[in-house]
Amino acid sequence: MSNKYVVVDLETTGNSPKKGDQIIQLAAVVIENGQITEQYASLVQPSHSIPPFIEELTGLTDEMVATAPKFSEIAKKVEQMLEGAYFVAHNVLFDLSFLQEEFKMAGLAGFYGPIIDTVELARIFLPSEDSYKLSDLSLNLGLSHVRPHQADSDAYVTAELLLILEQKMKSLPLLTLKQLKDISFGLKSDLDLYLDDWIQWKEESHQSLPSNLEIDHGIALRKSQNKQEGKLNKSGILYPYTKEEKEAYLQKVFKPFESREGQYQMMDAVYKAFISEQHSLIEAGTGVGKSLAYLLPSIIFSLQENERIVISTFTTQLQDQLLQKDLPLLTQMIPMPIKASILKGRNHYISLAKFIHTLRSHDDNYDTCLTKMQILVWLTETTTGDVDELNLSSGGQLYWNQIKNNRMLFINDKDFREKDFYNRAKKQAESAQLIITNHSMLLSDTISDYDILPSYQYAIIDEAHHFVKAASPYFGRMLDFMTVRLTINKLGLFEQKEWIFQLEQLLEEVGVSNEVIHSFEVNEMMESLHTEMDELFYLISKLVQKSSPKKSKLVRVKMNVQNLIAKYGRQMDIQVERFSSILKEVIQMLTARLHAIQNGPSPIAEKSQPLLEDVASAVRELEGYVNSLDFFFKNSQDSPLASWVEVDLRAIQNVTSIYAEPLDVSERLSQSFFTKKKSVVLASATMTVNQSFQYMEKELGLEGLPCTSQQIPSPFQYERQVKMIIPKDLPDIKAVKMEEYIASIAEQIISVAEVTKGRMLILFTSFEMLKETYQLIKESDFLSEYAIFAQGISGGSRSRLTRNFQKFDKAILLGASSFWEGVDIPGEDLSCLIIVRLPFAPPDDPVASAKAAKMKRDGGNPFKELAIPEAVIRFKQGFGRLIRSNTDRGVVIVFDRRIKTASYGKAFLQSIPSVEAKECDLNETIHIIEEWL
Hints:
about 950 residues, alpha/beta
């Protein structure tokens, strides 16, 4: 390979060269024959000063560039370096646009050779990476990136990244490279030219197919790992009853070893529940080590009794931890083979038959091209075919919906059954002692008419406080405008040449077009469907907005469906009926067309099968919409359902969603799950309210069933590791206007942040309050040297915001909803946790208000029996964010004075580990923190 690559990185005064932003640093690294042969870097003097944000980001100041050459002075040198080379950059269009503008200003022609974007390249050849930011890639690939956002460091790391990606390309089969080239024409990079060179090299080197790959149906696949299948067999292994016996197991894998009494208690509780065939609720405090505490007794019981055990989690993160971290430890402890498998919902797995059919289509948008290329590379790596391994864009997710594994009517997949990833996962589960799945899959199996999971009688439900939360929507429905519109748009109108148009062409080809209604009527029907859909969702959106408080600052408004019907019943009924009727007509029309083609005189051509699958899938989706409309709008006022509408007022387009959930799933869980299993152990760090399991037993439907419960305290010494403060100089949240309260807490946050040096997580119960507090802090400018991240404002997922927070010495993170749990920031990165309000469900929460109304009708006390228990469990989750190891120290500040002043406040304080809650004014608070930290 004799190509020359020049890897360029620029630091600039802003994002837009057309608006006058300029280069302040340029670096270039030359690669020839797979080696770095030259490096060049220079500061560049711009014609205006560097903005403060860019100074903070790059570390480059006006003084540093004051004596640097102007770009025109180095332009010729840069142009010469680029001559005859590929231009390479991480986000290439950004760097190239700046360079072209500067070349133009210097009177030079600019660069018009081939380009390579390493972001694009990394997405294709490293399809499972969590992030494609240069700093994240360099960390994961073990590259030294000492000065991010400085051009010389960034360019060198990008060059190293390119060389790694080239090694990855070398390892791919010739067939895969050729298929990638065929798809690559719609990309930013000139990847077709680049791949041509590698294809030529591969052909000349006459490499054989790697032994871990095989070619099947014209694509390269990773060979499956032939895991031994067969029946479960009993074993003579003994359970370790004594502390010494347990330690003997654990000492095999933990060096140095730390004995944990709580872990041993939990092991005994799990094993006892299984052998006595009882259900069990176990609250295990943070640090107990609950994963191994249930895995070890589970596998021993499974081996002794020849019983399969299902382990269900709420989050995929915990599934990954069990599979990648905990199970390997377990295999080192147990002196015999352990069969464990993970089984997810069918839609998680790729359908090879569908994917191969879509490869033949070249009429793709950018995201589809990129995703096809990612999947071609991924299939040479994956042994599971699970989409969770892929990092897909939102457009890539849409493409995945076309190739996901589900029931097929027209594509013949029998040739793929041996290679089918879902079938393979099910087979492995059938011979496994431990099956790891998620709450959704377990619930699917529970209510399904046929077995999804292999038969089992024993289960562990981890993250059990989410089991009811997972079950409620599972027994309910959801319908949103964007999803409905997407389905209808995919069918399209004749002039749009989408599926309806293609279906008509196929009817004529097969010779059955005279057996169904005329295409003119079909087009009219589809136009009516578009119109009635728009009219219904527009009406709902307008009625919700009309019924909302006029001065509300909410951007997402929720309203009970029954309230809407009570106010606007006649209008709603007419429009729902019109949309439902046209949906049924379209379903009937499409079904008739599919039936005519299926029973036509000539066989269906292979190239037409994917279209028919797509249309059949759309019919199933339309049928679901009809059922959902009945579910939402034909229930009586005293229906045991919470049904509501959510409208996003910020959206340019109509963003309206309709939901319905049962108010109580306890009876369904009791009858369809708990009474049918011998023993289910439910584990969580947050299950009790005021030291009692009563609320959780009732919610889960365990009242009256044989069930034990046990609290296992955290091994952490909270009284030595935590100071808890309730400010006494903050106003009562219910006694003042919200603006006044937010101004008061912003002042406290600023003062506390200055003494903690950031390292602060602030938990809110409302996005509106979070947003206004964030804006007030930013506008004050008192914390200008702090990195402040806010959920819903700073951008990025929870994990990305958390990672960014941990990168800065002085950082503050504002979070709501999902940040109350699942955020793990050990050590000195987090030293201060602020809980702004006690986490009661907001008054507009339709499920909470519907549950409360029903409880009131039944003679109960909704505040005492529902609102307080749910808020206490949420509070415990938030409190648990601070101390994640026995060396952590920190301060918890609860701004909501009701925890001390209200009669119910003690329920919160008595539900967390024993810590003195001290009431202080701001000066005392600062003094305590200074002494403590």
